[in-house]
Amino acid sequence: MSEYLDKAGLQVDHGLAEFVDSEVLAPLGHDSAAFWQGFAALLADYAPRNRALLARREELQAQIDDWHRSRAGQPHDALAYVRFLEEIGYLVPEPGEFTIGTENVDPEIATMAGPQLVVPVLNARFLLNAANARWGSLYDAFYGTDALDAPAARPGGYDADRGAAVIAEARRFLDQALPLREGSWTDLRGEPVPLLADEAQYRGRTEKGLLFRNNGLHIEVVIDREHPVGRDDPAGIADVVLESALTTIVDLEDSIAAVDAADKVAAYRNWLGVIRGDLEDTFEKNGRALTRRLAGDKTCQGEGGPVSLPGRSLLFVRNVGHLMTNPAIILPDGSEVPEGIMDAVITSAIGAHDVAGLGRYRNSRAGSIYIVKPKQHGPEECAFTNDLFDAVEDLLELPRHTVKVGVMDEERRTSANLAACIEAVRDRIVFINTGFLDRTGDEIHTSMQAGPMTRKAEMKSSTWLAAYEARNVAIGLRHGLSGRAQIGKGMWAAPDMMRDMVEQKIVHLKAGANTAWVPSPTAATLHALHYHQLDVFARQKELGEAPGLDKLLKIPLAHGTNWSEEEVREELDNNAQGLLGYVVRWIEQGVGCSKVPDIHDVGLMEDRATLRISSQHMANWLLHGVCTREQVMDSLRRMAAKVDAQNAGDPAYVPLVGNEDGPAFSAACDLVFRGVEQPSGYTEPLLHAWRQKAKEISA
């Protein structure tokens, strides 16, 4: 049981209170009593408003459900549907013309285009790797992945043939990004600065080589004749290092499992460590103890003198949404604290260390704190976030709009009212990003009563999805995000399929996104190649108007489709396997995001967004009689055996087969059979409840 301390009428977990007082407030010089008094007053105002917004979600959903049920068996009337959504306030009037007014934004967000990492805050090693992924070796990225179209490296040490193919491919990249006045990079001999076709691309000398810039991103050509590769290279080139992950989202939301005060303190402490610059992680690799630390800055000696370049990715922190509460703090009425409000206050207080210059390095050189706010439903909730951040700034004595916001466009009511959502945070917005997975889950849940949905694979070619992706960019551009904020696209989910990523992910740049998510530092380096191929800001000027709202609101129904029993089983198996493979790690091990083998044994990065789709899709088919409860249970049981086999090499794994009454299998069943009643189809309430039970069992 947690021990609580009274803090201005709040019952605060002892560990959280000690952490905030000693590690967060004391270095800032903030008085503890004044802080908790102010926090309590903030909660007295904003917790009821938070609850009212959640009640509004449920009210709208009930009206939409009733509308669809009352028209069961009738063809969908798109015009009547839009009028209905306007009448109930789901759709709001478009705002007039406006341009965002955000100021003090770092160039990595405003004027540069490049990859973005998302990393679970609870894994210190991954967090440090992501923060250090600002610079990445192109040689390593080619050598160790399938991105290079050449025979795989032979086992047993360095493969010289593979290495030669890597060097050749890297030289081809240099010829494309940094063309010489004459000849090719392959022909270079000696170490003088090569004569470029565009001399402005040369920036100067680094400690280990030459620095160049193309499309706003740096390229370091490492010269080192003592290095095993550089020793045998005619020009002494030992590596080509690319500026890679410009930004990283440190995630307290979908990629972690944090259900109580101990989990939250661990998350906040890692965020503080990376902001303060002293986070370390020691681990064993090949029988040796290694310690990971944050990288220092990179110095370039140019014609005008030395220039310091950031050695680390610029960090956002993703808070949780408005839905969940957490037992870390108990309010005077006995209820749990809204977790999103707690995140806003504490992650901002930690970010204030950076604003005050208390860390070893600076995160934001512009003096801003960057928070990504997910799962907001419409402009009312965005306005609430704006007001909340005002109150947080006042509590922490920060200048107005120090705390910036990234709005995840991943809920249907936000997509349909995106311009109004942007206007609600117009002076602090630095980011909009489409999230196909959560957006699909909400698409299914919002229209749950309309009828059976198409199969998951067909969703990717649906009318609403194409409109959603295009509208997000067009609306962002119309309201002045280009040059002031990021317009982002979603994750490449297959970390082992880098050749496919290199071939395909440039579509995000062509769509006008100046950042897109990647699953690893290596993927960030390979995705950086796309930003050298295409000038995103020039591309943004070529894009047209947004598709109409009618396309966005086209429900992906499958009326009139008669699937065979085999097709139904195939779809259920696909959903059940993905659901179980993710849930068993979440519930039993507290792993919120990992590479989970899919039904074809392909490792995919999974988080709660993919779980939301699988559970909601099965619930939808069950509701409309496409399948039966018995068929669902049959798939769950057979896929439990498959998931067990896929995890046979994990000594910490708790099998599903034989544990149908256990927390993991029970959670999976609840997610399907209670899916219709879950708020917005979210998985968090059930996951948290079953994870807490699993922790009690193992305690």
From TrEMBL:
The Malate synthase G alpha-beta insertion domain is annotated at: 158-189
| Amino-acid positions noted as binding acetyl-CoA in the UniProt annotation, renumbered to this chain | 118, 125-126, 255, 292, 519
Q: Which UniProt keywords apply?
A: Cytoplasm, Glyoxylate bypass, Magnesium, Metal-binding, Oxidation, Transferase, Tricarboxylic acid cycle
A Pfam family that the UniProt record links to this protein:
MS_C
Every copy of the Malate synthase N-terminal domain together lies at 17-74
Q: Which Gene3D superfamilies match?
A: Malate synthase, domain 3 (3.20.20.360), Malate synthase, domain III (1.20.1220.12)
Query: Which residues does the Swiss-Prot or TrEMBL record annotate as the active site?
Result: 318, 607
Q: What class of enzyme is it?
A: transferase
Q: Which residues carry this modification: Cysteine sulfenic acid (-SOH)?
A: 593
Q: Where in the cell is it found?
A: Cytoplasm
Locate the Malate synthase TIM barrel domain: which residues? 315-547
Reactions catalysed? glyoxylate + acetyl-CoA + H2O = (S)-malate + CoA + H(+)
Q: In which pathway does it act?
A: Carbohydrate metabolism; glyoxylate cycle; (S)-malate from isocitrate: step 2/2
Q: Which cofactor does it need?
A: Mg(2+)
Please, which domain of life does this record's source organism belong to?
A: Bacteria
Instruction: Report residues binding Mg(2+).
Output: 410, 438
Annotated residues for binding of glyoxylate: 318, 410, 435-438
User: Residue limits of the Malate synthase C-terminal domain?
Assistant: 567-672
Instruction: Keyword check for Phosphoprotein, yes or no.
Output: no
Question: Record's family?
Answer: Belongs to the malate synthase family. GlcB subfamily.
Q: How does it assemble?
A: Monomer.
Entry function: Involved in the glycolate utilization. Catalyzes the condensation and subsequent hydrolysis of acetyl-coenzyme A (acetyl-CoA) and glyoxylate to form malate and CoA.
Q: What NCBIfam families does the record point to?
A: malate_syn_G, PRK02999.1
Protein's name in the database:
Malate synthase G
